[in-house]
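Field notebook, page 475. I keep forgetting to write these up properly, so this time I am using the form the group agreed on. The chain and the ligand, zinc ion, are recorded exactly as supplied. Prediction of the bound pose follows.
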Amino acid sequence: MAFDPEVLQCARTLFEHRFEEEIRPAYNNRLWETKTKFTIGPELPFSGMDAQRLIAVEVQFAREAATAQADSLVAAIKTAGLKFDNEALIIGLNNTKELLNKHKHSATNTVLSAFAQQIDQAAKAGIDQDLDAKLARIHDSVLSLLKSKLAEAILLAKAETSNSGDKVFARMAIDEARKSVPENDGRPHPWVGAVVVKDGKVLGTAHRGEVPGNHAEFVALERNLPNVAVAGATVYTTLEPCTTRTPPKIPCVDRLIERRVTRVVIGILDPDDRIRGKGQRKLSNAGIETSLFPHDLAMEVEELNREFTRFCEKQSLTSQTDTAKSFAPADGLKPLVVPLRYGPSPLQARKHSMGHHGLIVANHGEPAYDVSILTSEVQIGASKLCFEGSKSTFTKSDGDAFFAAVVERSPHSHIMGSALFDEMRKQGVDDITVELIYKDAENRWYKTIGKIERNVSEVGGLMVRYVRQEPMSQS
Ligand SMILES: [Zn+2]
């Protein structure tokens, strides 16, 4: 492939500018100064020392010009985003040769004119030889400069190829993510794709909802590759793997650790501030290398999940405002558990096909154990919100637990309301109270009273406000 002539012309222009503005003026001065030291009159006897001094300045001039010329070529190629290759090296060397010939010519002229007729044939041949040897050294040093630029370019290209592997597989994960099948529950869901790669080969791909209600990483590892050794593999996933799933489901992070993958490359971290980074940290703690998609592809994932991100940010903002307000440590109690958000239950709870609603309880600060909902039924006007008596055990690494609930509209109908919010609005109920009990690591039991409020200013917005936390009588 021939080099873009425009780039070569630009390289010449860059060099000419530098040559005319910096190099030539400086050396014209030095040459003139050197000459005036001994050319007071043409009758002065020829001195070999004088000639050598003059040649030294000329050679220095040629060296600086040749180096600047090679630099200009390298800079122009780099700026144009082209690769410095063998062809560029040959172009650079030809330029050098041409330039050194010109300088040899002018150096000979300088010396000959300075000493006029005083130089005989033998001396002339000597000067010639001397110049040739010196210019050859310049040629070699430019060659070594260009070779080092070529080596640099090769190494850069190598680094790019190893990253471009990431690019290829990250792109594949995004294409997979676009196939996600969202739950039909009226709220935005993330678009997630996963690609499992080992030794440069794709072992499997999957997307969210490929198996209804299941995460992409689960489908990729457990359904598609249950008997394949994925130890040592790299998993590309567009969204940070989850750390919490309603039992008996296993969080994707735990599956990745269990299957001993070596590296996880993540598109975007979880947009929910409360859990953002937890998956990455848990992987790191397990000795799994994590990195992020190349920037442009990460932006694409961001764009793909914009609606979901906005939804999460709103949720997160609501709960953050609440917890900040809620936990005044005045009474000396540690806030251990706080009801954080509502959402439809995972699809695995199929018995209420229109979806569940539930309460997610998140650990704040110290972990709590044996969390359960004290209020199993909450009256909402004529309807009832019924928790299913879930009892959950928290461990330090667990983020939160999901307590499924159904809205019972009448004694004989178990139809699920599509949203708790709708039901509350219909019944004209602005808030309901839910009590949780749990114990801390020292087996002290506590009760947290949370208030679920209808946020009339937001569409579909439910808010949980912490009301009170109290120790229970230790019996
Ligand atoms: Zn997951």
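OBSERVATIONS:
- Residues 215, 217, 241-242, 252 surround zinc ion (CB under 6 Å).
- The chain has ten helices and 15 strands.
FOLLOW-UP: compare against the apo run.
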